[in-house]
Design brief:
Two copies of one chain form a homodimer.
Chain A (H helix, E strand, L loop, with lengths): L20 H21 L2 H7 L4 H5 L5 H24 L5 H13 L13 H11 L9 H6 L4 H17 L6 H21 L13 H18 L1
Helix pairs in contact in A: 1-6, 4-5, 4-6, 4-8, 5-8, 5-10, 8-9, 9-10
The structure holds a DNA duplex (30 and 30 nucleotides).
DNA sequence: CATAATTGATAGTATTACTATTTAATTTGT
DNA sequence: ACAAATTAAATAGTAATACTATCAATTATG
């Protein structure tokens, strides 16, 4: 099987972590560690110890741990967009394309053999718990100018386009999709930690099925009526 | 005019900040400072300097700055619930109640003369930019056991009840409302910082009007069809 | 082969988030 | 009223965090 590499925006790193053994280890292990410790509990010092390197070496790849998080989340959005491009190939019906996209957004994430160096299951848990922290900062405007959020914006725009193909009159295509993308994560977090805020049930095995149903109901009903 | 005081859950503080001059100053000034510096840039040391007190004194009221944020956000949700109770008084039609609730959620927040000690405009900006950080932590389950999120859950449940009065068959009442409550803030943040993720425009004065239209369209369409 | 550039290691610093202890003020009982 | 008890506030710490500056080793290039 061919091994792929997502093209990441230059500004996401100081030195491309895909280029060196150490760089790949930094990304691989930080995914595991942020998943285990949470973003606040994670430090470059702990990571350095785990990969038998030093803080200063890690700082050569990423300006700080926030940038490393942004890199990981950007990778995730790029990956989703690639999966949606792949999944909607040769399909012309916009309703079907929208359905496929929402299916991919809400489906359970498994390790993708195309990207053997990334633990997608751990990354997905990070996305659910930490992704909002990439932009909920005082430097959001500068970060945005550097293009750090291009992945999320691009994905949002792509799916919003499907909506506008279905109903060009609909006024809130981008708002609805950014809402749906966030809701897809949020509801899983709530299901696990604050269950009274959802109607999902983590103990049942149709969790991701319900999530998809919810998103599809919400999006299609909202644009149609 | 009568001055009110919202009843805050005991676990939100070590010593009730409403009881003393210092306590009230801590809450008042920290609202201003978190609004200015962001939650990450805010420290108890800076706050102590500003109110001419000491770090240790502040730690007598709040275990740490995270708890102080949780307190502020809980106050906000309690305030909203009070406004919705007030606004839906004597109204029996569930559709009208839902409409009123979503109106209150999305309306521009002004200083409330009933609570002269709180700067609601600054607090609203904090809610938009920081509220997710109250639960996106590794201690969310312990915090939840202590009842720190009761305000948000209670509000969500109240509005979800309106939905179930309209359509008892609807499967995702809680999910839809928690999604709408978050979307109402998120879209305003996006409008200001990542405008390609919304269809709102901060330069126009109908921003909050659009936000309400969006929430009402989304919620009513989703539950009706 | 020499020089430059890159990579990694060592050792620091300012700040943060707290805590333990001491001092001062206030309340309470007699 | 006044000492004892209680509570509040100030002082002075500490361990950990988030970096940074410098130095040494390795690799690449003319």
């Amino acid at each position: 099987m061919a091994t792929l590499q997502l093209l990441m925006s230059e500004n996401l790193f100081l030195r491309d972590p895909q280029d060196t053994e150490l760089g790949r280890k930094i990304v691989q292990e930080s995914i595991k560690m942020i998943d285990e410790l949470g973003f606040e509990g994670f430090t470059f010092k702990k990571l350095a110890m785990r990969i038998d390197s030093t803080e200063a070496s890690i700082y050569r790849y990423f300006e700080n741990k926030h940038r490393l998080l942004v890199y990981m989340i950007a990778w995730y959005w790029n990956w989703l967009e690639y999966k949606i491009d792949f999944g909607t190939q040769n399909i012309t019906d916009p309703e079907r394309k929208l359905e496929i996209a929402l299916g991919i957004v809400s489906e359970k994430k498994m390790t993708d053999p195309f990207f053997p160096q990334i633990d997608e299951e751990a990354l997905y848990r990070i996305v659910i718990a930490e992704s909002d922290k990439t932009y909920l900062t005082k430097q959001v405007d500068e970060d945005n100018k550097e293009g750090l959020f291009r992945g999320f914006k691009s994905l949002c725009h792509k799916i919003a386009t499907f909506i506008l193909e279905i109903n060009p009159e609909f006024e809130f295509a981008h708002s609805l999709i950014s809402t749906a993308l966030q809701a897809g994560h949020q509801q899983l977090f709530y299901a696990q930690h604050l269950p009274s805020l959802t109607d999902f049930d983590t103990t049942k095995d149709d969790l991701h099925q319900k999530n998809m149903e919810f998103l599809i109901t919400m999006v299609f009903n909202t644009i149609k009526c």
